[in-house]
Amino acid sequence: MTQHLQATTTLHNGVRMPWFGLGVFKVEEGSELVQAIKAAVKHGYRSIDTAAIYQNEKSTGQGIREALQENNLSREDLFVTSKVWNADLGYESTIAAYEASLERLGLDYLDLYLIHWPVAGKYKEAWRALETLYKEGRVKAIGVSNFQIHHLEDLMKDAEIKPMVNQVEYHPMLTQKDLIRFASEHGIQMEAWSPLMQGQLLDNPTLLDIAGQYGKSVAQIILRWDLQHGIVTIPKSTKEQRIIENASVFDFELSAEDMNRIDALNEDRRVGPDPDNFDF
Question: What local confidence, expressed as pLDDT, does residue 2 receive?
Fold first, then answer.
């Protein structure tokens, strides 16, 4: 299993994606975000996840460029993800949205571009645009976010290229076992957003008990649980100390018994919107 921060999983098209990265959801444009990205890269992170709707691609791009320079890295050393927003889903509009994201980020390409939500009647045209961008070599990998099994089945009926990644809400209260099994059968890499359930799990008695046994924080226990389930994870933080702490999950392994105890916390409970019932 993953033994260091720069370990990668290989997507079904051969592209290597780090198991661990920094998410920047809800971090506003500005110096705090720039500093967070620089801290993450300095401490070994190689993956950054943003989205058009976060309205922070400019600062994300600035942070990436400064971090590359300060750490003597090349663009190829980082794995950068963004996502097309619901209002831009459509063939031409998705291609335009990709170009706009690149421009805001100040980058020549993305490593991964995702459809942010499965808007009925719109995601197939958007997927066709992602396939075009991929076939033209303008993006290294393409995928989806918040897709349930039926969305994936529907998409793959007409798709030429299968999604390489599906990024979903995933944490001990929402283990999505069937979705993960389905993805695994189809070679789609699962990725977790909100792995710490936006902080709501940090005082969970079971997790506190397990954390005590390993001499780790609850956050570290959850992130390690993700990795041992083969789920890419992108915890969000802007504080350097927390960025370091979140990544200190490669020096221990959870026992099968403790993995099962964490799995048993599942309540199918979401903190984010339900992919089958959202109106934005």
Answer: 59
Average pLDDT over residues 30-54: 97
Contact 43, 10 (CB under 8 A): no
Does the active-site annotation cover 54?
yes
- Residue positions forming the annotated binding site for substrate: 116
- Cα dihedral sign for 171, 78, 36, 246? positive
pTM of this structure: 0.97
Catalytic residue (choose from 45, 54, 134, 170)? 54
Q: What domains does the chain contain, in order, with CATH numbers?
A: 8-198+226-238 (3.20.20.100)
The Cα–Cα gap between 178 and 182 comes to 6
10 Å CB burial of residue 78 (0-12, 13-18, 19+) is: buried
Single out the residue of 83, 82, 94 nearest to residue 124, CA to CA: 94
